[in-house]
Amino acid sequence: MSRLRLFLMAAALGLAGLAVQAQPQARAGAAALAEYRLGAGDVVRVVVYQNPDLTLETRVSETGVISYPLLGNVRIGGLGVGAAEQLIADGLRNGNYVKAPQVTLVLLQVKGNQASVLGQVNRPGRYPIETADMRMSDLLATAGGVATTGGDLVVLTGTREGKPLRLEIDLPNVFGPNGDQGRSNDVLVQNGDVLWVDRAPIVYIYGEVQRPGPMRLERGMTLMQVLAAGGGLTQRGTERGIRVHRKGSDGKVQIVQSAMDDVVKDGDVVYVKESLF
């Protein structure tokens, strides 16, 4: 076998070995990125193997500190579970309290990182952020999803890098056929965020229609579709007598002469007059 062939085989094996080593490192990096960060109010249990007197169940203080036997105040707020275990183990080892401590920290209650969901959802309230990669869709699903009275628009407010954040997110765009472009709006949720789900737009119809009253206004709904959703005109109704009452930017109501294929807006009131003949 020639020297060139031997060199190429060795190079190929070396690259394969590097790839095998890189994969566990990439997985470890992704796991570290998604690890939950301990916060104030979290309840934890610390266990040291074969040292039951060092078992402690406590709550993380507002300053991110726990009081641990032999070590005193230990600041674990902002650390991942693995980093907090290592910090306590190093303290026990360096203080010559335990020769080779094996520390396990169990997160019993998540209170330090929470987000709120308000508005038209099935279960509004405050929910824990248990992983660092929790997204808007995950938070919305935790709250039971959008209620039947909810619309397509949600608003996420919070703080990023010390600056106020307000994002209007169109749900059909997130879950539509846009791929990565739409999913980029499925933003990461952080501690203190508030997700508001607005009500669905409504149009009102009355007069000579089969089913008068308020109805959900679907996106791009035309006047003809609104009339069809209302069961159509009665025998006494006439298309010539249809009037759309719309509130302008100045707050005054205007009467709009709309064609059947014109798009209806949120809050419009459609009135169907009675035929005189």
From TrEMBL:
Residues covered by the Polysaccharide export protein N-terminal domain: 32-107
Signal peptide: 1-22
Subcellular location field: Cell outer membrane
Alphabetical list of Pfam families matching this protein: Poly_export, SLBB, SLBB_2
Gene Ontology biological-process entries: monoatomic ion transport
Keyword annotations from UniProtKB, A to Z: Cell outer membrane, Ion transport, Lipoprotein, Membrane, Palmitate, Polysaccharide transport, Porin, Signal, Sugar transport, Transmembrane, Transmembrane beta strand, Transport
Gene Ontology cellular-component annotations: cell outer membrane; pore complex
Domain SLBB: 114-197
Family label: Belongs to the BexD/CtrA/VexA family.
Protein name according to UniProt: Polysaccharide export protein EpsE
Name of the gene encoding the protein in the UniProt record: epsE
